[in-house]
Amino acid sequence: MTLVIAIDGPAAAGKGTLSRRIAEEYGFHHLDTGLTYRATAKALLDAGLPLDDEGVAEKVAREVELAGLDRSVLSAHSIGEAASKIAVMPAVRRALVEAQRAFSRKEPGTVLDGRDIGTVVCPDAAVKLYVTASPGVRAKRRYDEIVAGGGTADYAAIFEDVKKRDERDMGRADSPLEPAEDAHLLDTSEMSIEAAFQAAKTLIDAALKENI
Ligand code: CDP
After folding, report:
1. Where are the alpha helices (DSSP H) in the chain?
2. Does residue 212 form part of some domain?
3. CA 5, CA 208: separation in Å to the nearest integer?
4. Which of 58, 86, 107 is the last residue of a domain?
5. Which of 48, 72, 119, 158 has a 20 to 30 Å separation from 82 between CA atoms?
6. Helix (H) / strand (E) containing 8
7. Strands 127-132 and 184-187: what pairing?
8. pTM of the model
9. Domain boundary at 59, 91, 107, which?
10. C-alpha of residue 209 to centroid of ligand 1, in Å
């Protein structure tokens, strides 16, 4: 049986790095589901198509290839913004969730990270983590990331942006961002990536023992 680890949480909470480390540790396949929304948004932007036509966006979402997703070409701020706009559309979500579920069944196991993995995409996941951090800490992490990459950033604007994205992700009617009832909460505000990884590993090892 495939073992699924579901990791959810708000923007810049550290899910991505944590998910990649977990997948590496257990030899599982990893899917950053945010990239499926970003790839859909980028395809629409590149083709000059509107971001508010659900039928058009669904068609584009159905053509997204999971194998070709690359965060480096999808990382632009404008793509993230557009992604969170089309992510409110139920037809887009249905199309992408179908592809994400198919991915989650890969042997021997998978790690999926996103906003609705434990609640909607893989409600039967063996382990569910909800990774969070205060908005100030998340904005600082995003700021440091941009500066480390050689860019210039405005902390106040990033902070406003993190809050706006939270509101959009938590406030939408279809699959809002929220912890699954059986998710383990991991607040990384005062934790290094290494400490978060160790905490996650302890939870996952305990769940794996139960699943044997
Ligand atoms: O990396 P960042 O936190 O900026 O976001 P992301 O994970 O790349 O996701 C971009 C946007 O896609 C999010 O703001 C969500 O609106 C949407 N998303 C979603 O609705 N459901 C998911 N499972 C993953 C992402």
Report:
1. 15-26, 34-46, 54-62, 71-74, 77-86, 90-104, 135-148, 155-171, 193-211
2. no
3. 10
4. 107
5. 119
6. strand 3-8
7. parallel
8. 0.93
9. 107
10. 31
The CATH number given to whatever domain includes residue 200 is: 3.40.50.300
- Provide the domain count of the chain: 2
- Supply the pLDDT for residue 178: 95
Categorize the per-residue pLDDT at 210 as very low, low, confident or very high, splitting at 50, 70 and 90: confident
Q: Does residue 18 carry a pLDDT above 90?
A: yes
Residues enclosing ligand 1, CB less than 6 A?
A: 11-12, 33-34, 37-38, 80, 83-84, 87, 114-116, 165, 169
- Write the residue with the smallest CA distance to atom 7 of ligand 1: 34
- Residue 6 maps to a domain: yes
Nearest CA to ligand 1 atom 17: 84
Q: Which of 187, 184, 177 is nearest to 137 (CA)?
A: 187
On the question of pLDDT at 58 being above 70, the answer is: yes
> Ligand 1, from 115, 132, 158: best to mutate by most atoms within 8 Å of Cβ?
115
91 & 130 share domain? no
Question: pLDDT tens, 68-94?
Answer: 899 889 988 899 989 999 999 999 999
Clarify whether residues 116 and 51 are in a common domain.
no
